[in-house]
Design goal:
Pfam families: MazG. By secondary structure, the protein is an all-alpha fold. It has 13 helices and no strands.
Length: 274
Amino acid sequence: MTATEQDSRDAGAEILRLIDIMAQLRDPKTGCPWDIEQDFATIAPYTIEEAHEVADAIERKAWGELPGELGDLLLQVVFHAQMADEAGMFDFADCAAAISDKLIFRHPHVFGDESRDKSAEQQVKDWEAIKAVERAGKAERGTLDGVAMGLPALTRAIKLQNRAARVGFDWPNATEVLGKIAEETAELVEARDSLGPEAMEEEFGDLLFVMANLARHLNIDPELALRRANAKFTRRFEAIETALAAVGRRPEDSDLAEMDQLWDQAKAAEKAVG
């Protein structure tokens, strides 16, 4: 596609085209059998997957891939809206209107008469006050109400902890959290040694939850940190495979000592470049 062709595209027309395509795919008589069979529950996992693929493209700085990944994510919204429209619940316009109304309501300093001259801290306080009004409108009474069950576990842990911290249920600093990590680690060792698999799983979950809390106190996004750790592991293990392949071998032909040495070489090479 040329730059001229891209510039001449109309976003509204393309949205309508996508909505029409989705309606045709879901047509009971002439549509795609697979698309017709789907419902909210079966599509939801794809929605989550596509969101992660967007995040992955951003993490890799794969800007050429990003429009396609965002398009895949947009398709998920259109798919859900089409199914809702068929059931007489709502349609895509309702989705767009809902987020537009929410953005305007949450930014009175942009769309209203409030001053934009605020500190970041004050803006956060105002944002939370606005969201509290929204939660009250949804009849959310408990402090933790409305934290989505379908979030990745680490992300949900952070959101739950942030909610609890608003009402004062929080450790005062990261040092206190580090002490709790030591305590939870000891309990995990005890469970491993004498309490059985169910207790071990519970204690492991407690340790992960406290680790998420430490990330919050250190202003670290645990999902992002773990994604980057995964990427680093992948790079270094692939370096091990590449080094072994250069001498006609595979990891299963090696041993831990040799692979540890190759790992350290890959680590040193990364640090030299970085």
